Amino acid sequence: MKTFLVWIPAIIIYGLFLGWHQNWGGPLSTAEISNIIQRLEASEVGTSARNELQTMQKFLEADDGREFYMLNLVRVDPGDVEGPDGVVRPAREVVEEYTKVFMPSLLARGGYPAIVARKQGGYFDAWGVEADPGWSIIGYMRYRSRRDLAELVLDPRFGGAHDFKFAAMPNTFSFPTQPELLALPGPQIWVAALLALLASFGQIAWLLAGRAAGASATHR
Predict the structure, then answer these.
(1) Separation of alpha carbons 26 and 20, rounded Å
(2) Which of 67, 68, 44, 46 is nearest to 56 (CA)?
(3) Tally of domains in the chain
(4) Do the beta carbons of residue 174 and residue 73 sit within 8 Å?
(5) Full domain range(s) for residue 169
(6) Closest C-alpha to 68, from 150, 141, 159
(7) Considering the domain boundaries, does residue 110 fall inside one?
(8) In this predicted model, what pLDDT tens digit does every residue of 164-178 receive, in sequence order?
């Protein structure tokens, strides 16, 4: 019976994972949205012509409390660019100055890259859109909630980091999506399966060790 104790750490770890991965705060309240918009308007984000503040406000007001995925199309300059620090280097190295700030902040709020893929060819189907500017990569970023998106955008650590992004990416656009079909299992499933597998192996190892100890004692 004691062998079942190995499941306790697995259950605790999975509980901690869900605490990080799931949105337990529900949809944004009207007061929260008002506060966020006021802070955005007073921030660098609100004063930049690159950001659509009204679009953000509508997205927050329609909050359903669920996770969402941000689709990002990015064109990274193929050559060298001058970053805000005055150093000329490959654009991919410049954009890393942004991602090394962005990624830890995203992960801390229950988000992560679901898909990052490099473009392999031109448009196969295209009408009613501008010509392909030469997209480099696409990113499909998972956000735990719209609240987390707002908090990430308002993170003061991004004050200077965005300038590296602007210097390295001459073209980009992004918009939020809600998946209707995902063929790959989400972390809620594979993390649970992995922990269950490890706990099962631990239980078997404990049981075998106990039997070996018992057999050794019998032969003495």
Answers:
(1) 14
(2) 46
(3) 1
(4) yes
(5) 28-62+66-177
(6) 141
(7) yes
(8) 999 999 999 999 999
